[in-house]
Write a structure and sequence with these properties.
By secondary structure, the chain is an alpha+beta fold. The chain is about 60% helix and about 5% strand. The chain has a domain at about 90-250.
């Protein structure tokens, strides 16, 4: 009997989904990627009894793993190769602290910046990027729900006048913090090997750093002011670091 592969539920251009995708690829876990449009994914979450509707989600049979951090934990357990673990025991606490801060601040403000620049006047760009992998009835239903979904996204992300500038400023503060940690010339944020801290920073900043290994379908563009910010940041040490991590550790 053929083994049923786990399903990875994603929005195509979500940086948190890229984080989960990278963790599964890092561990060599074969999976089926399934795109759900935003808004409609809430129905899926409710059907599986989840309290939150956030993606990414992994389904393996009856097991449900929700959130990029939990998916890293699951992938580590699934592989059980100590040389490939993304959570080395000696640096677990420090790596998790960096992962949590980056997720709660950089992850949130990268998304808010993109939405603030695009949703008010170029919502079709956001829709195209997030719907990229959605097909069939899911795409059709997502299209019907999109006007309401767009308004919900703007409300949840607090897209108000000045939101883009506020998020740009917050991101630059975090870039300074990350660059301070790398100022001694280290290759990795904790220890001497690639960990969940590095994977988190690199994946959540990939849309800013634009490494060659990140497929175009996993990015958003369409705003001159957003493009100008990315160009201005392009040569920052943290962006060069992200591109080097993708080159070294992200084959697909």
């Amino acid at each position: 009997m053929a083994t049923v592969r786990p399903q990875l539920i994603i929005f195509a251009a979500s940086h948190f989904c890229e984080k989960a995708r990278w963790a599964l690829d890092w561990h060599g876990i074969s999976y089926e990627e399934v795109g759900w449009p935003p808004g409609l994914h809430q129905i899926l979450a409710q059907h599986r009894g989840l309290k939150e509707a956030n993606v990414p989600i992994v389904f393996e049979g009856e097991e449900v793993i929700q959130g990029s951090g939990a998916i890293i934990d699951w992938a580590d357990r699934k592989d059980q190769n100590p040389d490939r673990t993304l959570t080395p025991a000696a640096e677990r606490s420090e790596a998790s602290e960096i992962e949590n801060r980056v997720g709660e601040v950089i992850g949130v403000h990268v998304r808010r910046l993109a939405f603030a620049e695009l949703l008010p006047a170029n919502a079709h760009v956001v829709k195209s990027a997030l719907f990229y992998s959605a097909t069939g009835w899911r795409r059709l239903a997502g299209n019907m729900m999109w006007p309401v979904t767009r308004q919900v996204m703007m409300r949840k992300c607090n897209i108000v006048p000045g939101a883009a500038e506020e998020s740009r400023s917050k991101l630059e503060e975090e870039f300074d913090w990350l660059e301070g940690k790398l100022a001694d010339g280290r290759t990795y944020f904790v220890g001497n090997r690639f960990s969940r801290a590095d994977l988190t920073v690199a994946s959540l900043l990939a849309q800013c750093a634009r490494p060659n290994e990140l497929a175009d379908r996993h990015t958003m563009s369409g705003s001159d002011s957003l493009a100008a910010a990315l160009d201005r940041w392009s040569d920052r040490p943290i962006m060069r670091w992200v591109r080097s991590q993708y080159e070294m550790h992200r084959a697909c």
